[in-house]
C-alpha cells in the first residue's frame, strides 16, 4: 500500500530565505533580494524622509540590517513585511535622530523637510503635489505613514497591518481621518 | 405546481477577505474626493538620479559583508582591577590622615547589647578565667587588672552599695 506524504511545496520566498541563511549562497541570494526590493523599499523610505541622499543612507542601512539579521528571521510574517518593517523603523529612527541633532521637534523637522523640497533638484512636483506634501506633513506621524503607504505605495490594508502590526480596522480609520484632514487642508490653503 | 429545483450549487465559491466590506463606502468616498482635488496622478513628485538603481546590489553587498568594526572596551577587566587596587590603597592611606578620631571604632564605642549578643551566640569563646578578668562598669568593659590599684576599702564600699545579694561580699583575705 502506498502511503501518501504531504510535503509542503516550497515557495520561491522560502527558497530565497534558505539561500540567504546558508553562508555558501548568501551573497548571491542577497543580491537577488536587493534587486527584487530595492525600488519598493527606496520609495517607501523616500516618502518618509523626503530627501534622496537621506533615503539612500536609510536604504543601505535597511539592507545591511536585513543581511546581518536574516538568521533571526523565523518566518512568522512574510519576508516582504519583515523588510518593510525594518525600513519603516530605520526611517523613524533616522528622523528622530535628525530632530534631536537639530534640537527641534519632529513636527518642526517635518516642516523643514517640506520647505527644503522647493529647492530640491530631485523633487519635480507641481504646485498641487507640493501642497499635498505640506498637507501630509501636518498630519500626526502614524497617519502620515498610513496615508503614504495606502495612497502612494498602494499597499493593501492586510499588508499594511502586517508591516505596522496593527489591525486592519484601525488602519482604515486612520486612513479615513488622514484623507479627510488632507482634503480640508487642500481646500483651505 | 411543483417548484423546479436548481440542479447546480448556488454557491459560487468566491470569497472576500475578512472585514472587506467594513468601511468600504468611506474608503471609496475618500478615493473619489482625493482624485477630484489631486487628479488621477498619484505621484508624490519625488525623483531619483538617473541610473541610481543600477549596480545598487553590489554597492550594498560590499557594505553588508564588510566586517563590523570591533568595539574595544576602554576599561578591560585587568585595567579595572588595577584602578580599583590603586583606589583602595589611596583611600586606606588617606583614611589614616583624614578620618576623625572620634569616629574610630574602639571597645568603648561598641554597644553593650551587641557585644553580649555576639558572645551569647557563641561567636567567640571565652574561658571562665578570661571572663573573670573583665567586668562591665557603667556600660563599659574594663579589665580587672586595672582594679589592682584600687583601694580595697573603696572596692568593699562600692560592692556594698551596688550589690543587692550580700553573699557576694567577700571577707578580707
Automatic annotation (TrEMBL), chain A:
Limits of the RNA polymerase sigma-70 region domain: 33-99
GO MF entries: DNA binding; sigma factor activity
InterPro entries reported for this sequence: RNA_pol_sigma-70-like, RNA_pol_sigma-70_dom, RNA_pol_sigma70_r2, RNA_pol_sigma70_r4_t2, RNA_pol_sigma_r2, RNA_pol_sigma_r3/r4-like, WH-like_DNA-bd_sf
Signal peptide positions (record): none
Superkingdom of this protein's organism: Bacteria
Keyword check for Zinc: no
One GO term of the biological process aspect: DNA-templated transcription initiation
Alphabetized UniProt keyword annotations: Sigma factor, Transcription, Transcription regulation
RNA polymerase sigma factor 70 region 4 type domain mapped to chain residues: 130-182
Similarity-based family: Belongs to the sigma-70 factor family. ECF subfamily.
Name of the protein this chain belongs to: RNA polymerase sigma-70 factor, ECF subfamily
Organism: Salegentibacter agarivorans
Amino acid at each position: 500500500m502506498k502511503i501518501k506524504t504531504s510535503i509542503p511545496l516550497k515557495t520561491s520566498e522560502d527558497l530565497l530565505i534558505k539561500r540567504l541563511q546558508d553562508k555558501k549562497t548568501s551573497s548571491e541570494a542577497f543580491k537577488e533580494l536587493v534587486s527584487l526590493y530595492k525600488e519598493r523599499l527606496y520609495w517607501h523610505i523616500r516618502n518618509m524622509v523626503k530627501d534622496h541622499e537621506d533615503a539612500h543612507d536609510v536604504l543601505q542601512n535597511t539592507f545591511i540590517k536585513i543581511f546581518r539579521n536574516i538568521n533571526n528571521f523565523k518566518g512568522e510574517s512574510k519576508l516582504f513585511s519583515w523588510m518593510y518593517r525594518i525600513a519603516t523603523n530605520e526611517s523613524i529612527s533616522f528622523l528622530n535622530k535628525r530632530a534631536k541633532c537639530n534640537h527641534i521637534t519632529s513636527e518642526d523637522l517635518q516642516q523643514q523637510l517640506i520647505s527644503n523640497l522647493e529647492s530640491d533638484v530631485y523633487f519635480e512636483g507641481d504646485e498641487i503635489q507640493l501642497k499635498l506634501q505640506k498637507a501630509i506633513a501636518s498630519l500626526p506621524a502614524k497617519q502620515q505613514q498610513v496615508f503614504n503607504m495606502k495612497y502612494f505605495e498602494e499597499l493593501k490594508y492586510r499588508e499594511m497591518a502586517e508591516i505596522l502590526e496593527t489591525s486592519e480596522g484601525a488602519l482604515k480609520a486612520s486612513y479615513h481621518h488622514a484623507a479627510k484632514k488632507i482634503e480640508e487642508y487642500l481646500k483651505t490653503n | 405546481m411543483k417548484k423546479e429545483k436548481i440542479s447546480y450549487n448556488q454557491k459560487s465559491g468566491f470569497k472576500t477577505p475578512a472585514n472587506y466590506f467594513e468601511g468600504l463606502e468611506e474608503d471609496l468616498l475618500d478615493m473619489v474626493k482625493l482624485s477630484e482635488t489631486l487628479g488621477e496622478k498619484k505621484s508624490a513628485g519625488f525623483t531619483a538620479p538617473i541610473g541610481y538603481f543600477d549596480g545598487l546590489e553590489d554597492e550594498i553587498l560590499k557594505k553588508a559583508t564588510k566586517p563590523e568594526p570591533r568595539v574595544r572596551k576602554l576599561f578591560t577587566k585587568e585595567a579595572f582591577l588595577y584602578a580599583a587596587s590603586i583606589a583602595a590603597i589611596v583611600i586606606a592611606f588617606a583614611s589614616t590622615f583624614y578620618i576623625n578620631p572620634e569616629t574610630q571604632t574602639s571597645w568603648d564605642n561598641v554597644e553593650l547589647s551587641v557585644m553580649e549578643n555576639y558572645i551569647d551566640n557563641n561567636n567567640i569563646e571565652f574561658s571562665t578565667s578570661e571572663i573573670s578578668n573583665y567586668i562591665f562598669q557603667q556600660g563599659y568593659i574594663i579589665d580587672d587588672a586595672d582594679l589592682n590599684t584600687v583601694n580595697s576599702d573603696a572596692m568593699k564600699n562600692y560592692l556594698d552599695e551596688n550589690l543587692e545579694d550580700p553573699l557576694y561580699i567577700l571577707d578580707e583575705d
